[in-house]
Write a structure and sequence with these properties.
The chain has 98 residues and is α+β, with helices and mostly antiparallel strands. It is 24% helix and 28% strand. InterPro entries: CdAMP_rec, N-reg_PII-like_a/b, N-reg_PII/ATP_PRibTrfase_C.
Length: 98
């Protein structure tokens, strides 16, 4: 399992999240500023299986084709993707009150 941190310029976040949702992925959006993230940038957190990492990157490449002259750099290089290996992962789904 991998935790992907996608740091992107705010102007691309809607397009990125739409592409991920269309691919069946969900993400948590975190808006922050400081040393790690500059003003105008957003972090997306995604938990994916190791074999899905390339799918996520491909979704970002495909979503950015009209922004990008060099198809190897999503959104003109304004998107950073960090991969963090997870030893353990649990998804807890709350039960609604009945």
């Amino acid at each position: 399992m991998k935790l992907l941190l996608i740091v992107a310029n705010d102007e691309f976040i809607d397009e990125i999240t739409s592409a991920l949702i269309q691919g069946g992925f969900t993400a948590t959006e975190v808006a922050s500023t400081g040393e790690f993230v500059r003003y105008g940038e957003t972090i997306l957190l995604l938990g994916v299986e190791e074999n899905q990492v390339e799918q996520v990157i491909d979704k970002l490449r495909n979503a950015s084709r009209h922004h990008n002259k060099d198809k190897n750099l999503p959104f003109f290089g304004k998107v950073l993707i960090y991969q963090i290996a997870l030893d353990e992962y649990a998804k807890i789904i709350g039960m609604g009150a009945s």
